[in-house]
Amino acid sequence: MTSVEQTYDGAGEDVHDRECYRCDRNVEPARLFRVTVEPPETMAVEYRDSERFCCPDCAAAMNLSEFSEEWIERRRQR
Ligand SMILES: [Zn+2]
Description:
Elements: E1 33-37, E2 50-54, H1 56-61, H2 65-76
Antiparallel strand pairs: 1-2
Zinc ion binds at residues 20, 22-23, 25, 54-55, 57-58.
């Protein structure tokens, strides 16, 4: 689909775009939650933007389901 253009110097930084990053379970892409982390500007030297994918179960464990409720509400407003 898309090629990963980012290259990492260290090993173990593989991007698992079809696996939950927490439980390593394979999840169909349509059911993956995308979790993006953006550090504040003052921390940008040590941390960089990160994007992870996680399964609905782990999303629920992290209370991310609240976001999905918000999302569903937004869809209902159409
Ligand atoms: Zn998971």
